[in-house]
């Protein structure tokens, strides 16, 4: 059994995570998925809610646990890691917006601080 924590703030990151997880999740349903959507003060308020809805839809067969947090993304994601103790953290390379390029500051900060495997999801 593996526990995945998906840290997201956009539908694009959530969709990429669903694509990544499809071939990795145990069909017997023994894996757990926790989706933590963070409402960053610098992004539209509906983005986190939309990201959670995509997770519920695309990963419905695996019944992901979902939660929405408000605040600074790195702080909230680190707190979620402490609370849920997942085996693997999934993050997007950046906010998932069309203007993002490369690995952004949130992903870089998490890569430097997290003590478990971190998957930076490729975005289309």
TrEMBL record:
Residue ranges of domain UspA in the record: 53-122
Annotated signal sequence range: none
Entries under Gene3D superfamilies matching the protein: HUPs
InterPro entries: Rossmann-like_a/b/a_fold (IPR014729), UspA (IPR006016)
Pfam family, one: Usp
Region feature Disordered, mapped onto this chain: 87-109
SUPFAM superfamilies: Adenine nucleotide alpha hydrolases-like
The protein's name: Universal stress protein
């Amino acid at each position: 059994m593996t526990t995945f924590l998906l840290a997201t703030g956009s539908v694009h990151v959530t969709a990429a995570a669903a694509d990544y997880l499809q071939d990795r999740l145990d069909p017997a349903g023994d894996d757990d998925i926790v989706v933590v959507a963070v409402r960053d003060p610098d992004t539209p308020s509906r983005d986190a809610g939309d990201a959670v809805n995509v997770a519920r839809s695309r990963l419905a067969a695996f019944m992901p646990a979902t939660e929405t947090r408000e605040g600074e993304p790195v702080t909230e994601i680190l707190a979620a890691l402490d609370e849920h103790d997942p085996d693997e953290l999934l993050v997007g390379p950046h906010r998932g917006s069309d203007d993002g390029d490369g690995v952004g500051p949130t992903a870089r900060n998490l890569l430097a601080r997290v003590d478990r495997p971190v998957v930076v999801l490729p975005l289309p």
